[in-house]
Design goal:
It comes from Planktothrix serta PCC 8927. The protein is an alpha/beta fold. 41% of the residues lie in helices and 20% in strands. The strands form 3 sheets. The chain has a 7-stranded mixed β-sheet, with helices on both faces.
């Protein structure tokens, strides 16, 4: 038994509508992990057995055990569609037989190693393309893939591990999937499994530990996998009712003005965003009837360049009601933290107009507000 924790995002109905009546596109469930050996294939086979016990017609379309006994044993009892023989450069190779699967018409097919590149001369270049054909015929698919095979992460993975991954899948596959499940284990557990010979053959263990399976590599890849499913959860949540939206990531909104302390305020916001590993936004609310001086325009340009350099996003909206505009932007961008600069007002002004924070609280709920003293910010930067 492989012990692992799972994080799952599900975009459609949680029920498995396995019906004998005709359907449109099949459902696609992807098991993703930070590296080989975390237990993706094992978990996929385990769920296949559970569904077979419930009366679902389940077959294995393609299985790669890599000599792992636990995985091979777990596949026993499930029907295996024979592979198709392919001859290439006088060498006999085998690939998934997509036509045989379509002819068999199961309710669910299990497909290992989604990012695999088919033998040259095959009808389709990549295995994920075969999977899409199966899905288009109304057959459900469970598949497995590692995080380093995502196209958008290719350069980052190469920078982390020094390994350029040649086999990749487009990110849209995760976006289009019905469910995405992260099979998660700690780097220490994975290294122990490697030393026990449960991932690679004995002669490859030490080399793997010194290269791809270094702890720092696994920590970074694990974070990528967890972050990817978090993004997936938020993307799925955004398609539901706004009232049900739940932030997975922190988002920091720094509200700037034409005051001289705005660049320093942005830097404070950046420190907060870095501490929370949050996305950073800068917002300027412009009065439609007020024209900016040259100095004010240059200051806002400086702020925009600064936030772009931080990797954040600069927002500029027009409104007569600053507090209401901030609240609307906070709702639109799912902001969790708002940073404001506090300027000292006379008691007379506070009596008639109220403080900016009090005004903002009328419009905004469920967001933390950080008040930064404008004078202290300027003094600390001088």
């Amino acid at each position: 038994m492989i012990n692992s924790s799972e994080i799952e995002t599900q975009k459609n109905s949680p029920e498995s509508d396995y019906q004998t009546s005709s359907r449109n596109r099949g459902k696609h469930k992807i098991f993703i992990g930070m590296s080989p050996g975390v237990g993706k294939t094992y978990r996929m086979l385990e769920e296949g057995h559970q569904l077979k016990a419930e009366g679902i017609d389940v077959v294995i379309g393609l299985l790669e055990t890599h000599g792992r006994e636990e995985t091979a044993e777990k596949a026993m009892g499930l029907e295996l569609i024979p592979k198709k023989t392919v001859f290439h450069q006088e060498i006999t190779l085998w690939e998934m037989d997509t036509d045989a699967i379509l002819s068999r018409q199961p309710q669910l097919v299990l497909v290992d190693e989604l990012a695999h590149t088919n033998v040259p001369g095959s009808i389709r270049e990549k295995r994920y393309q075969d999977v899409e054909i199966i899905l288009n015929h109304g057959i459900d698919v469970y598949s497995t893939v590692n995080i380093q095979h995502l196209e958008s992460l290719n350069d980052l993975v190469a920078k982390i591990t020094g390994v350029v991954v040649r086999e990749r899948i487009p990110d849209r596959l995760l976006d289009e999937a019905t469910q995405v499940v992260v099979i998660d284990v700690t780097p220490e557990t994975l290294q122990e499994r490697l030393r026990e010979g449960k991932i690679y053959a004995p002669e490859k263990i030490e080399q793997a530990l010194q290269n791809f399976f270094q702890r720092r590599h696994l920590v970074a890849l694990r974070e990528l996998a967890l972050r990817e499913v978090a993004d997936n959860i938020e993307a799925a949540a955004e398609t539901t009712e706004k009232a049900l939206f739940c932030n997975v990531h922190e988002r920091v909104l720094v509200c700037i003005s034409t005051y001289q302390n705005s660049p320093q305020l942005l830097r404070r916001g950046l420190r907060l965003a870095n501490a929370m590993k949050a996305r950073l936004y800068g917002l300027y609310v412009e009065n439609p009837e007020r024209f900016l001086t040259k100095e004010e325009s240059l200051l806002l340009e400086t702020c925009q360049n600064l936030i772009n350099a931080f990797g954040g996003e600069f927002l500029r909206v027009k409104s007569y009601n600053v507090s209401e505009a901030i609240a609307q932007v906070a709702q639109q961008y799912h902001i969790t933290q708002v940073v404001l600069g506090h300027t000292r007002k006379s008691r007379w002004e506070l009596f008639w107009k109220g403080s900016p924070v009090q005004q903002l609280l009328k419009y905004i709920k469920g967001v933390d507000i950080h008040i930064i003293d404008a004078e202290k910010t300027l003094n600390s930067s001088s």
